[in-house]
Amino acid sequence: MKNKIKILKIFVIVILVLLAFRAFQLQILEGEYYYNLSEGNRTSFRPITAPRGKIIDKNGIILANNNLSHNLYLLPNEVPPNVDISLLLRNVSKLTSLSYELLSENYNYSKDKVNRENALLIKRNISQRDMIIVTENKKELPGILVRESSLREYVYDNLAAHMIGYIGEISLEELRYNSTQGINSYHVQDMIGKTGLEKEYEPYLKGSNGVRQIEVNNLGEMVKVLGIKPPIPGNDIILNIDYNFQKEVENILSDHINQLIKLAEEDEEMYSPTGGSAIVINPNNGMILAMASFPDFDLNTFSGGLTEKDFEKFSSDLMKPLLNRNIMAAVPPGSLFKLVTGTAAIEYLNVKQSTEFVDDNGLFYLPNWSRPFKNWHSGGEGKLNFTKAIARSNNIIFYKIGYQLYERYRGEKLVQTAIDYGLDNKTNIDLPEEKSGSVPKMALDEYDGNWYPGDSVNLSIGQGGLLTTPIQLVNYISAVANQGTLYQPFIVDKIIDYEGKVIYDQKPKVLKKLGFDQDLYQILHQGMKEVTMSSYGTARSTFRDFPIKVAGKTGTAQTGTEEVSHGWFGGYAPIDNPEITVLVFLENGSSSSYTLPIAGDIIKKYFKVNDQKT
Amino acid sequence: MYLNKKILKNINIYIPIVTLLLIIIGLFAVSSAVEVNNDTTGYIYIQKQIIAAILGIVIAIIIQFFDYRLLKEYYQLIFGSSVIILIMTYLYGANISGGRRWIDIGIVNFQPSELSKIALIVVLASILDSKEEYNSLKDLLLPFIYFIIPFSLIIMGNDLGTALVLLFILFIMLFVAGINKKFLYVFFGGGFLTVLLIIIFHIIFNTSIPFLKEYQINRLIAFINPSIDPQGIGYNIIQSKIALGSGKLTGKGLFQGTQNQLNFLPEKHNDFVFSVIGEEIGFVGIIVVLVLFFFLFWNFFKIATEAKDRFGKLMMVGIISLFFFHVLENIGMTMGIMPITGIPLPFISSGGTSMVVSLIAIGIAININIRKKKIYF
Q1: B377 lies in a domain?
Q2: Are A41 and B242 within 8 A, CB to CB?
Q3: Which of left, alpha, beta for B157 (phi over 0: left; psi -120 to 50: alpha)?
Q4: Domain that holds residue B338
Q5: How many interchain CB pairs under 8 A, A with B?
Q6: Number of folded domains in chain B?
Q7: A6, A164, A282, A398: which sits with the fewest CB atoms below 10 Å from its CB?
Q8: Residue B323, in any domain of the structure
Q9: Which of B221, B229, B246, B272 to mutate to probe the A interface, most A CBs <10 Å?
Q10: Model confidence over A104-136: pLDDT tens digits?
């Protein structure tokens, strides 16, 4: 028995020594490792979203701002293993105003995108009441967390919607793209500018997120703050736009178009316009003063993340409200192009203001081609000098010019002039997704057998494979107005950081000096003046008795197979010392005549003159 | 009933001193674990701990007035009453976390299975006292019957930890009492193999494991591989190792353990109190506790060898087995080298019954100690 007790004693001692060795291993040999693990347990990093930079008009009126909001998150790691996620979401739904379907849809949507360690966003922008409920019921809702966030607020809803643009949750493609650009500051579920200035100036607006290092307990609840790296707010961008003027322009455009739509409903012969746009720009420096696209939409629909319903609504709308027609509609310019043809005529055919042309019967025949090209006005207009031909927008004369140009240069000079005026290139306005339009460049190739006289003739009146955007056209009209300088259009004037320091100041940027003679512009100006102010001008109805002297050009562009045409007006005012160029575009607006009151009202608003008529 | 000054001279003074030191360390550790620094309700645990310690010490002192050999005379009574209490617990006890182990006796919850450990030691020592050697199966029938009844009741009450303690006590006491080694090998080796086969079958064929509940199986799985489910079944083991390991040499300081104070550590005042000591006092603290236990066992062995009769020696062996299994299992579990069972660390873990019963055992040990020589009557 004594021996056996001894054996037991040795056994006990050996075990105690083994325990001591194990403690030595854990605490001394591996102590640092476990210490780091305990620190990792204890601390948690919570991002602090940097407030996005504001978008401000030239007078300091804030157009896009940020509101404090609360987002609801689920921390998968902190949901106890015996708690079922769907039950947890049901509990959230029971307590709050949020529906279970919505929460579980959002959860399923984001769960695969985020690591287990990260918070899953399950609802953006919850109400104050829900925020309080969730916070107070933390015990019953393990793993559910409310975090402060900032919600983009577009103060004037629809105002300048296309220009300002909206933000949305970053997509995987955007994430990937950013990381290939070496930008790694974005994370899944971050908001990013998707369109308009929000997208164009994203790097300036974003700011940089801060981080709060906190001590957490086993439930992930904050015990105390260990350290804060404050966020750096995004920079504010200040526009050339005047809020009031922008609003007026939008109202004028939409009022008129709505009126036209109403008229078309009553009149079976009339076509209803499907949209429109208007741009006002300073021809002397390219500053955009107003820019409207109809129809528009409420930007705030997007700030909390677009719901499926809203998305469906937008994508099924035939009027395409999200489309910024000013930069994305590439359509035929019609007679607005005649100033390009006119430029080529003066420059290359030595046409003068007094050069006489004849329109006998409103028909133009190409040799060996039986089908005539027609004027918009049936029956001949007889003898016209060059500027009157512009004023009347007489197609026959321009066909002749086009044909003469063809005879001498094939399509080359006409197309080259169009390119000179920037119609084949993006204007590089500070907005994303600008379309470049297209000029039929095959005419430049001497040996391309596909360029026929008919092509030149068609092109001379702005048809035939020529596509331009409103922004290109307003830029081109501006270049005519300022006698030969093509500016890059800019919406943003300045960017200032959160301390008020100017970090970016936009100076006028010349895209191109055209290098035509002063006399050339004198002739074009005279033609444009006759368009508006002569007794025979196509825009006389609005501008002949107009308080401001306006020069301009109308255009009614055939749209191809459809019977309806686009309506155009482009002009500048005042004649002697142009301050603004205005361009109005009526998509499927039948005739340029409908654009004139719109342009007239805009110009009156700009110069703050009262309506004397009616 | 006698207690004269002469026999008190025999007292091994180290045992009460070491015990008191362990109780004091336990009070600090439990205070930190229940966060008396920032949660005043924690004081209730300390209060209960102190009351239990005083009660236990009083009982231990009273025990000294009786000769321990009286226990042998009443062993059947002790056995009977312990079994009755276990049955009552099974039928009427409070159901706490999957097992009926507690009897609510007004002010405190009493855990009868703790007492049944002492009862088993007394009973086994009494019946194994009669013979020097046990070579036939017939000899083993009696101890086996006395063992299997409380063991089954405790298993039915779902207290696997205590059942294992009883098994360990049986094994060690049979071994020391002189059982033929063949039997030991057959019984325990066979038993071990059976358990192993059952587990292997469970893993491969997903057969059910008798007596074990889901959570107990999970504990075994987690013990083998805690990283299978670090947030679930492996959580306790991982967090305990982090707590202990992160204490390094000198610890994070009393009340400063982040694993403890921020509740990452589960059952920290109770099963995992040793991890709190490891985290807050570090390797130094752990060595102090281990050395104190070592000292306790050393003196227990001394008493066992000096005991005046076989019954006393067997009693001491039983008491050593009891404490030793608790120390090995509890500390081993916190270090991730033993599977998790809800066995407290004697004198240190919070828990009144465990404290009282441990002190009764100490009382009996001292009783055997002071009556070691036959000269004193």
Answers
A1: no
A2: yes
A3: alpha
A4: 5-370
A5: 131
A6: 1
A7: A6
A8: yes
A9: B246
A10: 888 887 776 666 557 788 888 888 888 888 888
